[in-house]
Specification:
About 45% of the residues lie in helices and about 15% in strands. The longest helix has about 45 residues, at about 195-240. The chain has a five-stranded parallel sheet with strand order 1-2-3-4-7. The protein has eight helices and seven strands. With about 260 residues, the protein is α/β, with parallel strands linked by helices.
Length: about 260
């Protein structure tokens, strides 16, 4: 029996706002993704987490880390692209294998200014600064709980410089327990490749709705064309049989999806 594999190849976030607006499948890797996977493989004693992500939300990554650590299963992580908060997920493995040509970027915690309010007062900036510093401490604490407290100073300095660790450095520092040896080359996808059951159902429902809408559009257009054809035939027939006949006006309309006629 093969070991169940969970793939993280997307941004780490609790949700995608735009996907929710359009009722689409969530193109993110979240705690919900992990919960669905664990529920689906309750009887598995071992699982593999394949990480190839640029990271995302550190708070969501910490939740996933705790879920994996507390699931009671032996976790092996395979790292191909372990950037930013994706490193937190990678460290959840008891066995942590890094690929030879991997990316492993560690950097200070930061926030996306695009999501901040347009007007900020000094008190607001201090509040954000305190939150960032607190999140930084939590991040380094997780690192050191796995790689060892003796690495705190060195890792903090490497983070401050935004360092892309080589596979050898990753092993030396303790982020990885060894090198990943495989004959297969992992694809580095940008967005969602692995669906949970809920995601797959949502995607299928959305596709079904699109197909039904297209069928309705085709049916309405057929009615419009049929009506126009009947009008033309009626006009030609009346003119062939009587030249002085009063042509009746045929009132025909068909409602379109956009609301016109």
């Amino acid at each position: 029996m093969s070991t169940p594999t969970l793939v993280c190849d997307r941004d780490i976030a609790p949700n995608d706002t735009f996907a929710e607006m359009f009722d689409e499948a969530q193109p993110v890797f979240s705690a919900t993704t992990v919960r669905d996977f664990l529920d689906l493989h309750k009887d598995a004693t071992d699982i593999i987490l394949e990480v190839r992500s640029d990271g995302g939300s550190t708070s969501e990554a910490r939740i996933i880390y705790d879920m994996l650590k507390g699931c009671g299963k032996t976790i092996t992580t395979h790292g191909y692209k372990v950037n930013s908060s994706a490193m937190i997920l990678f460290l959840a493995g008891e066995n942590r294998l890094i690929s030879q040509n991997s990316d492993s970027i560690i950097h200070p915690v930061w926030v996306d200014a695009f999501g901040l309010p347009w007007q900020l007062e000094a008190q607001d900036l201090r509040m954000f600064a305190n939150e960032i510093e607190a999140e930084q401490v939590k991040l380094v604490d997780i690192y050191c709980s796995v790689i060892g407290e003796d690495k705190r100073v060195e890792v903090t300095q490497l983070m401050a410089q935004t360092t892309n660790l080589s596979s050898d450095e990753s092993v030396r520092l303790g982020f990885s327990t060894g090198k990943l040896v495989t004959k297969e080359k992992s694809e580095n996808s940008n967005r969602s490749v692995v669906y949970t059951n809920k995601m797959f159902a949502a995607a299928m429902l959305n596709k079904k709705n699109q197909n039904q809408m297209a069928a309705k559009e085709e049916s309405r257009m057929d009615k419009v064309l049929e009506t126009m054809s009947n009008m033309a035939k009626a006009f030609v027939t009346k003119n062939e049989t009587k030249t002085d006949v009063k042509v009746e006006t045929v009132n025909a309309s068909a409602e379109l999806a956009e609301g016109g006629s």
